[in-house]
Amino acid sequence: MTKTDPFLTELTAPDMPFAIGERRGMRRFTNAPPTLDALIESARRHGSATFLVEGGARLTFDEVFARRDALAAALPIASGDRVVICMRNRAAWMIGFLAVMRAGGVAVLVNSRGAPEELRAAVEECSPALVLADRERAALLDQSGFGGAILRAKDFPLEGGAGFVPPSRGADDPAAILFTSGTTGRVKGAVLTHGNMVTALMSVQLSGLMVLHDVARRLGLAPEQLLAGAPQAGVLLVYPLFHISGLVSAFLSPLLAGSKVVVMRRWDADEALRLIAVERISMFTGVPTMLWDVLHRAKLSEADLSSLTNIASGGQALPINLLDAMREFCPGAAMGTGYGMTETAGTVAMAVGDDFMRRRASAGRVLDLYELRIEGPGGEQLPPGEAGEIVVRGPTVMQGYWNRPEETAEVLSADGWLHTGDIGYVDDENYIFIVDRKKDMVISGGENIYCAEVERVMSLLPEVGECAAFGMPDERLGERLVAVVVASGLDEDCIRHHVGEHLARYKAPVRVGVSKEPLPRNPIGKIDKNRLRALWPHLAGDQ
Predict the structure, then answer these.
(1) What does the alpha-carbon distance between residue 317 and residue 329 come to, in Å, rounded to a whole number?
(2) Which residues does 258 contact at the CB level (< 8 Å), separation at least 6?
(3) Nearest to 39 by CA among 83, 90, 102
(4) Tens digit of pLDDT for each residue in 70-96?
(5) Do 347 and 340 contact (CB within 8 A), yes or no?
(6) Cα(84)–Cα(502) distance, rounded to whole angstroms?
(7) Which residue of 133, 211, 284, 454 has the lowest C-beta tally within 10 Å?
(8) Angle between helices 91-102 and 61-74 (to 10 degrees)
(9) For residue 304, what is the enclosing H or E element?
């Protein structure tokens, strides 16, 4: 997928929908619609085809758009108002998002798994005009003391909205705010504009066309012939919709492509296998933990995975042994991976099929719209093959963190270069390889857990003198979060319970070691987590 590919050159020619040119110093889709809502409108053409499957309910594209229109007209908001969406994965979440875009609002996506105080902090951070919530999250917000306006999913209108005229918005206007805790433990929201979101989605579309062309070429067919004989694509939604991967890859991209989306509210490997077989799912994208679960359960149950044509992983590195095992079990499926983050509205590097297998230890090849460089400790640009911090620039990079100018300035330069905090290198063919993280973060089962946030909560216990949270290798999860505390009168269960009460339960350490000695520190006085990792078997009582 390089710029010299003749098919790519054809797709990105000046008179084509994916025309690429330079504007304001960046490569962009010059013929892109100005707003996300305008791009979403193009999906109306899919009409009576099934779009959403949730439990026993099935909604066509026509039905989803009708409900979107009714809700958009009923929302008591003005253009530019922030609207929080706080629900588990469900059709109402998706209709709510589409309606907010239609009504000119800014969708604020909060972690639906958060504890009450987490939810309230995220909600109050953005001073919303309205919160869209399911019954459980509405109750949690009530419990937290939140006093703002809440519209419950059960009260969404199913019809109406005739004559509603959407307000005018532009490419530089905010479209969505997605939250991350950051290394300080403070909640912060990445502001993504309409232009960011439109470009991200069109990049996914373009990459999909390139993959389709590659498959058709190998089969000796025209892409149109391949599509004509193919059934409707089916996508299993397993990512939380408040994650950028869930929003872009598993919801909005299938919407534009005319694919069927089968909704899972929570991860269950056996249920996933059942849905793949019954709904003839063609694309499964999940974190490596989910792939391990599917593979293990499929081998035990002799599950039917024959419908899968694409299997992709994101969120953390794809272990080579897992890749080989999936290819053996699903030989007809193309494997893929990608690299990106919330702050870039999703993927900045991607590789699928043969392109991925050429560099299967990579996180993909940098996409054509992006500039990416590797910086050394002094900010110098490093040559191919040398590892340093990954710094990226492109039209999907966030506007900044909501109401966090200082934290924005720490990661985003005035000319648009984003410091990712990831350590990696690129090769001479622009494949990127991730080797470490600069930021103190653990990725466990695809979930980002910031150690500072967990440490802040543990330190609220008066018995805790010192504490440290860090990651240890785990075959299934990639990493597991563990912690060490210097404390008296506390046991492991008490500390884990305390963290689970204040934060989402997946952020609670899997194990907690209690030390009677001060924690080791490096020469500059910081807790030495590398030393703690070496000491962990002893601290955990495993030896």
Answers:
(1) 20
(2) 43, 45, 46, 49, 61, 232, 233
(3) 102
(4) 999 999 999 999 999 999 999 999 999
(5) yes
(6) 21
(7) 211
(8) 60
(9) none
Confidence at residue 502, expressed as pLDDT on a 0 to 100 scale? 85
Nearest to 174 by CA among 240, 95, 119, 104: 104
Q: What is the pLDDT of residues 427-459, one digit of tens each?
A: 999 999 887 666 778 888 888 787 877 887 888
> Between β-strands 418-426 and 388-393, what pairing exists: parallel, antiparallel or unpaired?
antiparallel
How far apart are alpha carbons 144 and 350 in whole angstroms?
41
**Other CB atoms within 10 A of residue 225 CB:** 12
Cα angle vertex 205, ends 202, 206, to 5°? 85
Alpha-helix residue ranges (DSSP H) falling in 437-517: 451-458, 492-502
Average pLDDT of 92-118? 92
State the Cα–Cα distance between residues 468 and 363, nearest whole angstrom: 30
Cα angle 484, 490, 491 (rounded to 5 degrees) comes to 70
- Give 150's strand partners: 131
Q: For residue 344, give the DSSP letter.
A: G
Q: Report whether pLDDT(190) > 90.
A: yes
Q: Which domains does the chain have, with CATH numbers?
A: 1-31 (no CATH), 441-539 (3.30.300.30)
Cα Rg of the chain (Å, integer): 23
Check if the beta carbon of residue 40 is closer than 8 Å to that of residue 98.
yes
Distance CA(303)–CA(55), nearest Å, equals: 20
Give the model confidence (pLDDT) of 475-507 as tens digits.
888 889 999 998 888 889 999 999 998 888 899
Q: Is 23 exposed, middle or buried (0-12, 13-18, 19+ CB in 10 A)?
A: exposed
| Max CA pair span of the chain | 71
The answer on pLDDT for 29 being more than 70 is yes
Residue 1 has pLDDT above 50, yes or no: no
Q: Which of 204-218, 223-237, 385-399 has the lowest mean pLDDT?
A: 204-218
SS3 340: strand
Please state the separation of Cα 104 from the chain's center in Å: 23
Tokens of 250: 């598993």
pTM of the prediction? 0.83
CA distances from residue 379 to 140, 231, 348, 461 in whole angstroms, order as listed: 45, 50, 21, 40
Q: For position 134, what pLDDT does the model report? A: 95
Report the distance separating Cα 149 and Cα 390, nearest Å.
Answer: 41
- 376-400 CB burial, b ≥16 within 10 A, e <16: eeeeeeeeeeebbbbbbbbbbbbbb
